[in-house]
Amino acid sequence: MASTKLFIGRRIRELREAGKATQSVFAERLGISTSYLNQIENNQRPVSATVLLALAAKFHVDIASIAGSEADRLLSALSEALADPVCHGFSPGLQELKLVTQNAPDFAHALIACHQAYRRNSEQLASFDDHLIRTNAFAEPTPYEEVRDFFHFVDNYIDELDRAAEHLAIALGISDRDTAVALADHIETRHEVRVARAANDEGMIRRFDASARILYLNRYSPPSTRSFQMAYQIGALEQRKEIDAIVDRARFRTAEAGEICKIGLQNYFAGALMLPYRPFLGAAKELRHDLQLIAARFGASLEQVAHRLSTLQRAELKGVPVFFARIDRAGNITKRHSASKLQFARYGAACPLWNAHQAFEAPGRMICQLAETPDGVRYLSIATEVTKAAGGFDAPHRRYAIALGCEICYAGDFVYADRLDVTNNSAFVPIGVSCRICERLDCIQRAVPPLKSKIAVDHDQRGELPYSLC
Fold first, then answer.
1. In 3-state terms, the chain is what percent helix, strand and coil (to 5)?
2. Which terminus of the chain faces fewer neighbouring Cβ atoms within 10 Å, N or C?
3. pLDDT digit string (tens) for 209-227?
4. Is 7:52 a contact under the CB 8 Å cutoff?
5. Contacts of 300 (CB under 8 A, 6+ apart)
């Protein structure tokens, strides 16, 4: 495969302007001509390896992060938006899309937002009565979708909260003590809040009585859940100012989105406190990403561990770039993030050939899969079922599948690849992102035709599908 040319002119210009340097001064420090720098900043020429090394040596720029996966996520979302039939007749090439996402990301975000509004309005016109349409209730993204996109486009990593959580975790000795004991001691000593176990109130996991200074936790919740809820409450008490500032910077359209984001940020802090960055990253490397062993070491659940692995995006100390998703039995992706090239569809269900769906058929097992997407990129994917309950025999049980994976070049860092033959081309299952944008013509599991393909129907013969694609 040919090497990918790197056009990061906007990033270079921002770095130069942040240092208040002229093009001539900045070019001199990089050891290149002013005209070459001008061409780089205007994306007329790609950045060479020599320039990248100079950026790393003289400006302490992380080479991995400057190319980053943000552009990949934005490129994926923009490509999906332009695949909609409403854009029929307009088919910008990959290089054109890359120039837009790299040089004018705000424009790309605006176009994606317009497409979201269009889809919501179209779906509501097809599903709801005239009264709901006249209220214009769906003209803008829902608060939940807006918050989901916020985390997606910040790479699911919030630096100030992550470092604050790590600092506190080290002070409390989280890695060397029982997590629940350490958190309970801290919240009582620092905030005079007593932790108490409550009766199994219907649907209650955590309840904070601010006047009595008591944090009630469901006595039947798993230990990892109780620890997480204590960490969440500590974040609510100690990180309010920082969280408010992050929400203010996000400029959400509604106050409701801001409140939902605050919950997400407090959840983020809780996960980072239970699984502090450096100790957790060290354990992941040492244990080769064995989810069960990592969970046992930190007193966490499999889902907490898998989710945390997807947030290891600190510029100077990144973990393996993984994708993570939580899927319910109907195929809805209720959590998603990818630091890899694999990007989840924003609309529609996940590919039925993906092993995440098989997890429901084999509770308690780790299902391992070698997979290949239509762009030729290969992945290791691990999936398992998780059950959430807080009660006895009659209590409702929520069942999910969690999926975690990486590009095949990182498979050696995962214990799950040891019994798989990654050199066998036939071992890779051809999967897609979702049927509506997957361009595979010969998939027998296809649910709907891809948006950009035409359908041909032969009334005299029938294959696995009642139509062919052309």
1. 50, 15, 40
2. N
3. 999 999 999 988 899 999 9
4. no
5. 179, 224, 227, 228, 274, 275, 294, 308
Q: Which tokens in the block code for residue 108?
A: 């790309």
- Mark whether 163 and 280 lie in a shared domain: yes
Judgement on whether residues 88 and 217 belong to the same structural domain of the protein: no
Say whether pLDDT at 135 is over 70: no
Total domains present in the chain: 3
| Separation between Cα atoms, residue 65 and residue 415, nearest integer Å | 26
CA angle 244, 157, 311 (to 5 degrees): 135
Kindly state the average pLDDT of the residues 263-282: 97
pLDDT grade for 85, boundaries at 50, 70 and 90: low
Judge whether 369 and 350 are in contact, CB under 8 Å: no
Q: Is 383 left (phi over 0), alpha (psi -120 to 50) or beta?
A: beta
Among 304, 323, 339, give the residue marking a domain's end: 304
C-alpha dist (Å) from residue 107 to 7, 74, 112, 163 = 17, 11, 9, 32
Residue 441 is assigned to a structural domain of this protein: no
Three-class secondary structure of residue 73 per DSSP: helix
Write down which residue in 123, 140, 157 finishes a domain.
Answer: 140
pLDDT number for residue 128: 45
- Domain range holding 85? 70-140
Q: Please state, as a whole number, how many other Cβ atoms lie within 10 Å of the Cβ of residue 257.
A: 22
Q: What is the pLDDT of residue 202?
A: 58
Q: Which residues contact 446 (CB under 8 A, 6 or more apart)?
A: 435, 438, 440, 465
Structure tokens at 32: 């290149």
Cβ atoms of residues 112 and 77 within 8 Å: yes
